[in-house]
Design goal:
- This protein is an alpha/beta fold.
- The chain folds into two domains: about 1-175, Rossmann fold (3-Layer(aba) Sandwich); about 190-340 and about 365-400, Dihydrodipicolinate Reductase, domain 2 (2-Layer Sandwich), CATH 3.30.360.
- It has 16 helices and 15 strands.
- A hairpin with a 3-residue loop joins strand 12 and strand 13 (about 325-330).
- Helix 3 (about 55-70) crosses helix 14, helix 6 (about 125-135) packs parallel to helix 7 and helix 7 (about 150-165) runs antiparallel to helix 15.
- The longest helix has 20 residues, at about 370-385.
- The protein starts with a helix and ends in a 13-residue tail after the last helix.
- Bound molecules: nicotinamide-adenine-dinucleotide (NAD).
- Nicotinamide-adenine-dinucleotide binds near residues 80, 119, 172, 229 and 242.
- Nicotinamide-adenine-dinucleotide binds near residues 52, 79, 80, 143 and 242.
Length: about 400
Amino acid sequence: MSQLATAAHHPENTTLNRRGFLAGTTAAGLTLLQPGLALGTQANSKVKLGIVGCGGRGKWISKLFMQHGGYEIAACADYFADRADGLGEQFQVESARRFTGLSGYKRVLDAKPDAVVIETPPYFHPEQALAAADAGCHVYVAKPVAVDVPGCLTIADAGKKATENKRCMLVDFQTRASELYREAIRRVHAGDLGPLVSGEAVYYCGTTWGGDEALGANATNPENRLRGWGLDRVLSGDVITEQNIHALDVAAWIVNQDPVKAYGTCGRQGRVDRGDCHGNFSVIFFYPNNVVISFASKQYGTGYDDIGNKMFGPDGTLETHYFGLVRIVGRKSYKGGNQPGLFTEGCVANIAEFHANILKGDCSNPTVAPSVRSNLTTILGRTAAYRGGEATWDEIMQAKEKLEFDTKGLKA
Ligand SMILES: NC(=O)c1ccc[n+]([C@@H]2O[C@H](COP(=O)([O-])OP(=O)(O)OC[C@H]3O[C@@H](n4cnc5c(N)ncnc54)[C@H](O)[C@@H]3O)[C@@H](O)[C@H]2O)c1
């Protein structure tokens, strides 16, 4: 069967050793830094990937992994067979290594890839990332890492486990890979704005997600919910967690602290699609030392798009835009620049960094803890906004509220 075919291709010990080699944990492993010397062929030195989630992002990112040159796709999984086949056909993954159903990702792990790329709806990221880390794989995971507090804590555990086991784990935020963002925020942390006082984070866009037709046919059918996951609060975490995290992650990076509390509101007016996700959020986040971030987002209409942050201190202002300018204006200005192609370039940089870290054996995994913090920040804001009132960090961390998706009726 498929696993046997895979096992024949990747005898367990060889693969495990190979992953150890790729983590650079032994002197022998470091010889793989020179492709061709240790295993004889350049092809053998490629990082073998298992792709989990073969939808829009899964296919798009697979192409970037292939363009890097240091990877090959060994297996793939999607709940739906047509999606797994679609990616499989495009990247010549043999049909015996295309897996389906909710447990398809486990069959990918059985196939012993070096690394797993997780591009499923956020609800499934914690379970799949932890299983991949437990299986001794390197893990590359899309944002947001989770939809609820328990999921965030699971991701934090997966990251710790990966580091302990000398495996790499990277969360794919494009902004964190940008040299412009890195330099600007390094200067903010060095004190170039003076002590931080207040700032803003915004995420304005139009209708984003497909799946409306599937929900129109039957909104409670679980397969339809999977197809329309971006319109589903439980599977996506709602707009503030699923989309707006790009802005709130930058805010969390700038402030570099957990918020103490948040006050917020949200609504659905303006949206024309189905589902139960909101169309706008307005939240004020309160940080230690009276630092305040005001956050606003919308996901409807047209005319203005931005994923932007501003941070003000007595000595200057930091301004960032995902699709545009990053700069500091003030006593110690930083000219910065524009990175209009960050959507792709950030991802290309993350893919290259993931590969370099695997070969160097750098398993410090610096993207995991910040991604958990910003994800929790979105959940704090969401909790406050759903209430139309206040929520505290301590309260949500104690409550550990779990969002539940009933998988009854789905294929295992
Ligand atoms: N800029 C960015 O960082 C960026 C951009 C787009 C998407 N994303 C992220 O990528 C992820 C995937 O988004 P997408 O746009 O590709 O969605 P998509 O719906 O196009 O693809 C998701 C795929 O996952 C499959 N799936 C659902 N449940 C599954 C399960 N339990 N096991 C296996 N497969 C399952 C679906 O059938 C679908 O094919 C999300 O986390 C999203 O936030 C990030």
